[in-house]
Amino acid sequence: MSSGAKRGLGWALGALLLIVLGWWGWQRFRPYAFHGTVLQSAEPAPDFTLMSADGPVSLSDFRGRIVMLYFGYTFCPDVCPTTLFEVQKTMELLGEDADQVQLIMISVDPLRDTPERLKEYVQYFHPSFIGVTGSEDEIAQVATQYGIYYEKHEGTPATGYLVDHTATLTVVDRKGYVKLIFPYGTPAEDMAADLKYLIEH
Amino acid sequence: MTRRNLWIGLAVAVLAALSLTACQKAQGPQIEITDAWGRPSPKVATAGAFYMTIRNTGTEDDALIGADSDACGVVELHESFKTPEGAMGMRPVQGGKIVIPAGETVELKMGGLHIMCIDKQVDFTPGTKVRLVLHFEKSGDIPLEVEIRQPMK
Ligand SMILES: [Cu+2]
Q1: A154-177 mean pLDDT
Q2: B47–A75 C-beta distance less than 8 A
Q3: I need a labelling partner for B135 at 20 to 30 A (CA). Which of A49, A91, B61, B110 fits?
């Protein structure tokens, strides 16, 4: 090999090394971009105590873990199961880290959803999921505190009333602050990536 | 009857039959249903949902106006929609029917149009097969078998 060719090879190797290093550095140190909507909360998430089939449940019971709050109702056959199925997939994607995440479904239909119904409903999607309800006033207060809109409207004779409701998932971080909102339809892969980041940082 | 009259009569009959089948092929709606499935749901959930793809390969619009199933107390056509407040709601389809325009495909899918099974009579566990009869405005009744299975994405 001539000295010119050796020199050329040296340059090429050097350039390759720079590209690899640069790419590694970018991957390693770039800021993480959340898929969900990030919220900067000045105050901790409002605490609440509502009733599950296994006794009262408070948000503060889960300090040190990530809590996902979902407001829905068991009569809802389309939007709620779609979201809960996506959370089920998220838990599968998280693998061993899934025990760091607690989903709590809060009923926006306290007249029809008993704690027992809620338990059977949510556990169908994942054995760790918790369902809670309370009096109409208690539910209204918690929903308002979390910026959740819900409104009963007349259905058909067969369905009875239906409840329109904000179908987002609210993520409370380990310190008890609202950190993220996942809009309706956020894919499990995106939720799992965001939750994994919160677990690791 | 003369031999000649017989031939003429036969020719007319053949022509009439031909034009009739030609008409049936060229005109009217032609409904095809694919990917019909039902979502598994816990016993405690009184309502379930069916989804499918409905294609109209004909030359005339048709509409799904209702459905029946032994697996449901009542079957209704619904849609999930976003309310002006940004919340999700569910309501019976507008006009009581789902129009399937000629040459087009309408998808009944999660978070959108669905056939809602109220007062489930069977367990919606994966693998269960449910008989469903769809009522179309022009094509009449179309029976089908729908399997309960996990959603695919
Ligand atoms: Cu519905």
Answers
A1: 94
A2: yes
A3: B110
